[in-house]
Amino acid sequence: MIYETLQILQEQLENYFIEVGLGKIIALENIALLESGNDDAKKLDGKVVLSLLKMEEETTLRNIPSYKIKDGKTEYKNPPVHLNLYLIIAANCDTYDKSLRSISKVIQFFQGKKLFTSTNTVYNRTNVAFDVFDYFKFILELYTPSFEELNNVWGTLGGRQLPSVIYRIQLIQLEQDKKLSTSKVITHVGGELNNIN
Q: Contact at 8 Å (CB) between 5 and 169?
């Protein structure tokens, strides 16, 4: 679900960039490659790069019931994991002004569409990763780090700071369809109550 979410965002953003005349310059890649000196770093030249920065569990949804009643039986499962993802979008364009325009267009696009669901989003369903991907819903929220946090982020990524923006993607649900056990539904309580005095 993590890859699929980022792939959908990459496709949506790329379609918007083509529509506004900036071209097919969106890449889903590790921005830290830029400073690696690796041959893969050349793939990031002239691109707006989407990179996963951090994941955190949404602890407020940790205590949801881990069972459901189906066909008169109770099925027990481990509860799903709900994640918030932090996505950095950095512009490594040919010129500084094109990088700034690109970041402005990214912010403009996500200001216009913050909620992504399987009903309001058209995406490439022929991709192998989407074969069991029926329903999704996630929300993007602009995240503004302090100067110190931003310095730490770029220091971790390799040192060279680019025009960038960070978004928090809320509530990615990961769940394995694996039953722990099945039992009959308790419909009544029998027996007698005795006075213990």
A: yes
Backbone phi, then psi, for 23, in 5-degree steps? 90, -175
Pairwise CA distance, residues 98 & 82, whole Å: 36
Low-confidence ranges of the chain (pLDDT < 70): 37, 61-68, 123-135, 172-193, 195-197
d(CA 152, CA 9): 25
For residues 153 and 53, the answer to whether their CB atoms sit within 8 Å is yes
Nearest to 171 by CA among 72, 66, 56, 76: 56
- Per DSSP bridges, beta strands 26-28 and 47-57 are parallel
Contact 52, 6 (CB under 8 A): yes
The rounded Cα 149 to chain-centroid distance in angstroms is 21
pLDDT attached to residue 130? 53
Residue 89 CA to residue 106 CA, distance in Å, equals 8
